[in-house]
Automatic annotation (TrEMBL):
One of its GO terms (molecular function) is lipid binding. The keyword Membrane does not apply. The lineage of its organism: Eukaryota, Viridiplantae, Streptophyta, Embryophyta, Tracheophyta. This is Non-specific lipid-transfer protein. PANTHER family: NON-SPECIFIC LIPID-TRANSFER PROTEIN 2-RELATED.
Length: 117
């Protein structure tokens, strides 16, 4: 009986390890869009960064604590920038530093979000 229980326990541990390695992002594109929407004027024209924009950037950074979340945020940002002809990539690249936020990747259309850790 003890051997059977040990086998069941081992199978359960293996299942937990396998399922945790396929973690999905809890952060959605809708979340990302909501947080960066106050940044639209800066992303289009530059200039002063609105306070609520930096609040959103900091909130997004705080929400993206796992690798899947950071990759999801990266992909969502790229999708947002591609869909707007008015966003300037140079403004997006400096936005985190202007808000005092350090993110582990460059906000750029050339960033490979799959490599973001």
């Amino acid at each position: 009986m003890a051997i059977k229980m040990m086998k069941v326990f081992c199978v359960m541990v293996v299942c937990m390890v396998v399922s945790s390695s396929y973690a999905e992002a809890a952060l959605t594109c809708n979340d990302v869009t909501k947080k960066i929407s106050p940044c639209t004027s800066f992303l289009e024209k530059g200039g002063e960064v609105p306070v609520d924009c930096c609040t959103g950037v900091k909130g997004l950074n705080d929400a993206a604590k796992t690798t899947p979340d950071r990759q999801a945020a990266c992909n969502c940002l790229k999708t947002s920038f591609k869909s707007s002809n008015n966003f300037k990539e140079e403004n997006a690249a400096v936005l985190p530093s202007k808000c005092g936020v350090n993110i582990p990747y460059k906000i750029s259309l050339e960033t490979d979000c799959n490599k973001v850790k």
